[in-house]
Please model this.
Amino acid sequence: MENTWKVILTRSDAEPWWFFDGWKEDIVKEWDFQDRESAITKYLSEIDRLKEQWPKSKSKTFNSIAFWNPEEIEFCEACDDDVQVYHGILLFEQNQPMAINEQTKKHVIQLLEQD
Model:
């Protein structure tokens, strides 16, 4: 089976690493790649772009990152309350979150810490 990699953007009231039922409905864009390096390059460039748009970020395992603006709140009818909107980015390999090596982890940390 041929390896495939994806970079996925989401917009949701949950951070991207939760994968709640129906999480795929939150996908706003995705890119497919035939090689790991191209996927990582796109992932890093999207992190750089997203951090310019949304001031806050958090990562759990470096293969998924949530970005948000504390003022971007939407009303959730199901929970009858206001919820934070998160813009997520995920890096997948063979339809699951990709294991991140130390070099990529360092790049992600550097990007997130830059002003």
